[in-house]
Amino acid sequence: MNIHLLLRVAVVAAVFTAGIQGQEKPCSTASKFGPGDQIGNVNYITPAKTLAATRLVTKGKAYRLGIETNKDTPAYGARKFAITVVQPDQAGGASLGPSKTSYNDDIITGWVGIGSQIDGFGHAGVDNLYFNCNKAADFTRVDGLTKLGIENVPAIATRGVLLDMAGYLGTDMVKEGTAFNRAEIEGAMKRQGITAIEKGDVVLFYTGWMKLLGKDNKRFISANPGLGREGAKYLASLGVAMIGSDTSNFEVIPFESGAGFYEVHQILLAQNGIHILENMNTEEMARDQAWEFLFTLGPARITGGVQAIINPIAIK
Amino acid sequence: MNIHLLLRVAVVAAVFTAGIQGQEKPCSTASKFGPGDQIGNVNYITPAKTLAATRLVTKGKAYRLGIETNKDTPAYGARKFAITVVQPDQAGGASLGPSKTSYNDDIITGWVGIGSQIDGFGHAGVDNLYFNCNKAADFTRVDGLTKLGIENVPAIATRGVLLDMAGYLGTDMVKEGTAFNRAEIEGAMKRQGITAIEKGDVVLFYTGWMKLLGKDNKRFISANPGLGREGAKYLASLGVAMIGSDTSNFEVIPFESGAGFYEVHQILLAQNGIHILENMNTEEMARDQAWEFLFTLGPARITGGVQAIINPIAIK
Amino acid sequence: MNIHLLLRVAVVAAVFTAGIQGQEKPCSTASKFGPGDQIGNVNYITPAKTLAATRLVTKGKAYRLGIETNKDTPAYGARKFAITVVQPDQAGGASLGPSKTSYNDDIITGWVGIGSQIDGFGHAGVDNLYFNCNKAADFTRVDGLTKLGIENVPAIATRGVLLDMAGYLGTDMVKEGTAFNRAEIEGAMKRQGITAIEKGDVVLFYTGWMKLLGKDNKRFISANPGLGREGAKYLASLGVAMIGSDTSNFEVIPFESGAGFYEVHQILLAQNGIHILENMNTEEMARDQAWEFLFTLGPARITGGVQAIINPIAIK
Amino acid sequence: MNIHLLLRVAVVAAVFTAGIQGQEKPCSTASKFGPGDQIGNVNYITPAKTLAATRLVTKGKAYRLGIETNKDTPAYGARKFAITVVQPDQAGGASLGPSKTSYNDDIITGWVGIGSQIDGFGHAGVDNLYFNCNKAADFTRVDGLTKLGIENVPAIATRGVLLDMAGYLGTDMVKEGTAFNRAEIEGAMKRQGITAIEKGDVVLFYTGWMKLLGKDNKRFISANPGLGREGAKYLASLGVAMIGSDTSNFEVIPFESGAGFYEVHQILLAQNGIHILENMNTEEMARDQAWEFLFTLGPARITGGVQAIINPIAIK
Description:
Structural class of chain A: alpha/beta
Oligomer: homotetramer
Mean pLDDT of chain A: 94
Number of helices of chain A: 9
Strand order of the largest sheet of chain A: 1-19-17-11-13-15-16-5-18
Largest sheet of chain A: 9 strands, mixed
């Protein structure tokens, strides 16, 4: 075990001790893992947990969870996306050098929050207060976040759990506005024979909504079933590291009665240090009943990034 | 085993049969895996191989191989990078809704080939002919490749092998211009006790060059040790799926005597269907002597992309 | 008269002498104004011509000819446009300094060829040969043209002539596919009492097509009436500096029988050194019968730019 | 005189009447020209004024005031600029159609506030209040301003006055931190024989600072001589439409003792409806002693734009 890991475990231990001693919370979004923490519940993913997760692999089948990102991918609000393919300095078809090299390069001019994505802790806050007492004015710079940037996410290799909400609710595609709270989560677990959700797990909800992609993009982007507020708090109490779904908005839309604007995002990202994964394509995993698996993710480390376009690999 | 996997295995089998029957190559960049193939040697990564690779994990330590991408990351030629962080429609600090939601979004305006990256098969060709007989004029569109796009890369979970070229050459940092060919590859393997490089493996070269990053970016970008032409053909003959290094140019620079402009890129990408991984940070892995491991990679699936900014996860 | 102007006149004189002596053309796109020329017929706009043009102003009414450029402006092919408005480092509504300064900035991520535009001489060529014997491979760089860039256009202040083709053809809006050739040009002139088109003039065609903008963008972008090949050669023979129209494609679409792909662009830009102005909104000028006027234009001087988004000012 | 002009004059008249009657100001940035006004003192540019300005032209010499905008142009803060030149769908040198058409297009990915520019009224405010009582939250959208956008600027053709501050101060290049206030403005006018600055004029300050461009960009961007607060209020009292200078920051930097952060921007843009023009290259005009002239400007009409990259044409 290297120094880095020892330190991480030590911090966790110290925090627990502090908790026992009843230390006061410095602000409403303070991290359990101390004032310098930028990774939240990812701290729970220890080598022991990673090692155990690799043993969940029994078939060697690897799934890519990313959907495609392009100009037609349904996207929230003003978000747009384009790539431009260029042949630098080869106008007229000129090739370069004795082996006649030709090459293409590509340029992105697009919003990151399109397609499959991870929300970093700089994405959503409460009245300009973000995770771990970080005020917007202190870390939000126009050319990148100076804290909570996506480059800080460590290597993710942990246990993944897929909750088949469509199966639990006896449908192919769960209706928009259906909130997943503790009862639904435990009901789905029981049906699938999943005995526990544990610290450091990545929990993915399967709703069947990927079936709409490219077929009814308007419906896909404007609403969906998803996690409710009580369910978010319940999963937070279990110490999960990340929560995802096969929908674009992740949380239930229309919002639950009395809920704020993307309040579940606030609960997870700002108040509990739990990353959110959107547009996770788990269609094939659901068909294969791949309920418990090794989940791996390395978001592109764009310095100061709010989010990242991702393509996690799940292995069963 | 699902239909998709069955088909892939069937294609591989068919191709072998074709090979035995001495079928003629339709063009100089034809794929072993048939006329429709877009993924090259990734075809060799079977479920059995993935399963076996997970058993290489003995400690549960996960490494992220990505370096950070930002405006200061050393980059080739005209490549530039910027992100812009915005607070959509919250001018003046306005928060949204009853739970006072604040949020940041981010926009990329940058070249993909900056930082840690995978080169897709649309990146380099020979006189406008790319992998598997694809002519530039046929698949290169200004708003995305219509074939060979990075979105086609399947889920990668396979055996990774780290070749410690610095250790083999008895130095902290291998000198620029040092070519790695068959002798050096086999020498390093022998020293590290690696008995074989196999079909579907990902081979990473460790040279110590990450030590320059942020310290001498000019040297880092302008030259490096790396794979030579003979070494590239040797690894191709072994059927590796991807080859990477901890340098920005990947192949040896200055080029070997008589070599073309980035000719090793041509040999791997165009002529052999082998992906290239650049700027893979393996410093910590080299220190840990993590020579054989589970390598996982899911590049963001940007439709028609030439390359992708990546952050593979290696697990030992 | 300053050195710059003296030199320009001297070049013109030298060229005429050369012409008289029957000097051979070095290539099919050679400039009348010598091997170093990058501005073509703009050379004809002398101070005397500018001074005379100011005397065409009799009412003091100034017209802006630019239409709006935004994401919905009809645009050719893959062209897209976006602006992003940011409040740098003011997240949470923070103002700056004792006088509580707030500010917005804006970022463009868009193709230049959208909305009202001038085509530079690097825009269209014949088989990779552009104006004045410039080969694409020699001046086209991915980060900007090294010759023929839009930054080279001098200050434009000259006589403008509006040809009312709708009036001439007795219609509100000329039908798509209607070609303007010598007969139509002279017919319109005669009807409007315009006695001559002269060296250095800017000629604008009024067709009534702006009426479609925002109402039938699909029709607006896919075809239009416009200049034909013979008309282009006729105006070139008169030495006009620039030719524009109130349509998006400028030249007649569908193309004339036997014509090449945007061949009128080739004739003007590559073969005659005449700039093209697209989407010039002359609706109000046509209503006012402002046929002869002072035309002024200063395109934003983006180094190496192919085109520019413009908003010329016509004064009557 | 058309309806539009009649209405504008009527509004001006009505506003004066209102002023006489002592009507209360609805907010600290209210326009003299009424609640719907978005163009401020540009209202003063009447046809009579434009006509008179054309008679200031005596030599026919036209000057372009724009400097070049590119990645090396000195720019404020996080501002960056790039263009990308592409040959859409011509990979491998393919030409299009029977006349072998080749073409380049260009894409901007850059901040607007680089190089010669006009500041729109959405650029600077006081504690999130912008010109004419517009609150940031009400009109600032991430994809464009919904009011005060640069597309609203009418055709500008008016009297221009160049104040030679370098000549007045007996130097080639005025020292940074030198404030131009009423005394300096009147002193320069007297020296140049300019009898009056009038309603609707465009006033440009010449300081000699363009000599630094490309030679000492660091000094050029970090400070400059320029308009002071009292001078700004004085010019506002005269009803000028726009004020510019040959520097990048326009106003005096370091700021005057006790002044806020870019407070002169606030005084002109927010409190007086006067546009600001930066990086106006008047070197040649100063050499020619072109003190009074016709000034024309048509900023590219990008919908919702905060600023515009410009290249005004001055004619003497």
